[in-house]
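Quick one from the shared queue. A colleague (R.T.) flagged DYTN protein as missing a structural entry in our internal table.

Convert sequence to structure tokens.
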Amino acid sequence: MQQISRMLKKLFQKARLEKPGQVDRRAAEFTLSLLVAMYDRAGTGYVKTRSAAAALISLSGDTLLAKYRAFFEFYAVPDGKATLITRSALRSLLTDLNQIPAIVGEGCTWSCVEIAIHDCFHGVLNAAIVEEKFLSWLRSEPAVLLWLPTCYRLSATEMVSHQARCR
């Protein structure tokens, strides 16, 4: 947890320099509290770095495609010349990401994670898939992750400015 805390402090310190006045001084503290609430409900004092990274990626202001690629990078495993994501790695990713809506009482059950894995690997004979197959599946907006593109779209509309006036 100390490692994640240090990383968050550096991250938000840099963000404050880039966007003065737009980043709360307690952002690192608040973010760490959120990560602990999501990933350390037993109070062990331990949060997996990969889980924290998945949450930060998903909550970032980056594009969906960039987020999806980052998920692949964090959860895929090298296999000779290729990098692949296994069913087990996909299960870990979906379980980690499911903690985000779960914190507000909107998480799905274990069975929806398994259904999503089955759907992603439908028609695949290998034990793992390449990035393109993974990205294609995510672009189809699987139900287990429907909150992610929805949040992205809501966030993107906040930046829209119309030059029209209403009477």
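The chain has a mean pLDDT of 91.
The longest helix spans residues 2-18.
Added to the table.
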